[in-house]
Design a protein that fits this description.
There is one protein chain. This protein is an alpha/beta fold and 395 residues long. It is 28% helix and 15% strand. It has helices at residues 20-36, 83-87, 100-107, 157-170, 185-196, 202-206, 221-228, 238-245, 249-252, 289-301, 352-359, 384-391; strands at residues 61-64, 70-74, 129-134, 147-148, 178-183, 207-213, 261-262, 313-319, 322-329, 340-346, 367-370. It has a six-stranded parallel beta sheet with strand order 4-1-5-6-8-11, sandwiched between helices. A three-stranded mixed beta sheet has the order 7-9-10, covered by helices on one side. The protein has a two-stranded antiparallel sheet with strand order 2-3.
């Protein structure tokens, strides 16, 4: 059920590996728009607009992008950018010229125990951040005939899933049900939304099909890498992002559900020293116990992920053709470091076999596997083989 008591009202980072040439092109478009004042492409809706007028959407297809797939804006509509654009030195209003401390304040969040919604969407005085627009370079094959759900992908996934529920109810297409395309974290929103409803049959009344593209249903070690290392945001921004990402609940909530921390011989450490527990982070500053608790709570919701989707046509779309980390070495000298020691085939973020084994092999008939070369995780929605199959399920 949706806990409304906790769900009270109230850069960017990406755990995906992106293609530099595509990002340079995206950065150039943002730079040109900032310099010329060109208008941005319209978006179809999100938390800020989901209840305004309760206008039905023009078609039944809805994209829920993944982590970092939506820009962040301040209250004046200024795009605060995201790290790759900072690294490319694009001219993004709100970021240019800021010190490291100012960037940490700008992109940091504050959450209070017992409250799902963020207490602050930015730590900078007088600033609030909200979702802006979908990153076209990752979703260029879903621009026509597909609506877009906007959300703050840093926040507690249950908070965003609650906003998705409101959107599905209030903007339901006339005479039909939704076809959802959830990429990466976007797929987790769809799963969690189905689990939060009091009436287990309600989700099927709103939704006809769900395409879960590269959804980390059992988590990903890339989330741990981001929290330990700081991601590949450029040398200057590594310490900035390392501090900032440790304030984002959604990243904690995508930590691996399987025992991913192993001893020297490859055997898993005990549960108290795995990544969902405070004891799994020795020597790492800034890890928040409340956010780890949120991760464990979400993991319970993700057990048997399709249990509340009876009457909905669901497909997982996972690839199995790129090296993907599944284990890191435990702490040495009392400090956890990023030391991956085991890989398997996946999409660079979601390991195929480990994920299916963790959520249950009984879901196998709903899985569409792509063993042949295809795009990496961040670009699965641009891959011809994947998107052809997804589009067959749309109206």
């Amino acid at each position: 059920m949706v806990d409304r008591a906790r769900n009270t009202p109230d850069v960017t980072f990406n755990i995906h590996r992106r293609d530099p040439d595509g990002l340079r092109a995206e950065g150039k478009r943002e730079k040109d728009a900032a310099q010329t004042g060109a208008s941005r492409p319209p978006v179809q809706g999100g938390p800020a607009t989901s209840s305004a007028g309760k206008v039905p959407m023009p078609n039944a297809n809805l994209l829920i992008p993944g982590t970092g797939g939506i820009t962040l804006e301040d209250a004046d509509g200024n795009d605060v950018g995201w790290p790759v654009l900072m690294r490319l030195k694009s001219v993004i209003r709100g970021v240019q010229g800021k010190s490291d401390e100012e960037l940490v304040e700008l992109l940091g969040m504050e959450h209070r125990p017992g409250q799902i919604a963020p207490a602050k969407t930015s730590l900078a005085p007088g600033i609030t951040l909200h979702p802006g627009r979908v990153l076209r370079v990752a979703y260029n094959q879903l621009q026509t005939g597909v609506n877009q759900f906007l959300y703050d992908w840093r926040a507690d996934i249950r908070h965003s899933a609650g906003q998705l529920i409101d959107f599905l109810r209030e903007r339901r297409p006339e005479g039909g049900r939704w076809n959802l395309i959830g990429h990466s974290q976007g797929g987790l929103l769809a799963i969690v939304a189905s689990k939060l409803l009091d009436d287990e049959e309600e989700f099927a009344r709103h939704v006809a099909s769900v395409s879960l593209v590269g959804t980390p249903a059992a988590g990903t070690l890339n989330a741990a890498e981001a929290m330990i290392v700081g991601d590949n945001a450029g040398e200057r921004l590594i310490p900035v992002m390392r501090r900032t990402v440790r304030m984002w609940p959604a990243i904690y909530q995508m930590l691996p559900a399987w025992p991913a921390v192993v001893a020297g011989g490859g055997e898993p450490l005990d549960p108290g020293h795995q990544l969902l527990e405070e004891g799994g982070w020795p020597g790492v500053e800034g890890i928040q116990e409340d956010l780890l608790l949120r991760a464990r709570e979400l993991r319970e919701l993700l057990t048997d992920p399709l249990a509340s989707m009876d009457g909905v046509d669901v497909r997982f779309y996972w690839s199995e053709n790129r090296k993907t980390n599944i284990a890191i070495r435990g702490p040495t000298g009392g400090v956890l470091d990023w030391d991956p020691v085991e890989q398997e085939k996946g999409d660079t973020l979601v390991p195929f076999a480990t994920t299916l084994r963790t959520i249950g092999t009984e879901h196998g008939p709903k899985v569409r596997r792509f063993p042949a070369p295809c795009e990496p995780h961040a670009y699965l929605c641009c891959d011809d083989g994947v998107i052809t199959r997804v589009r067959r399920r749309l109206q």
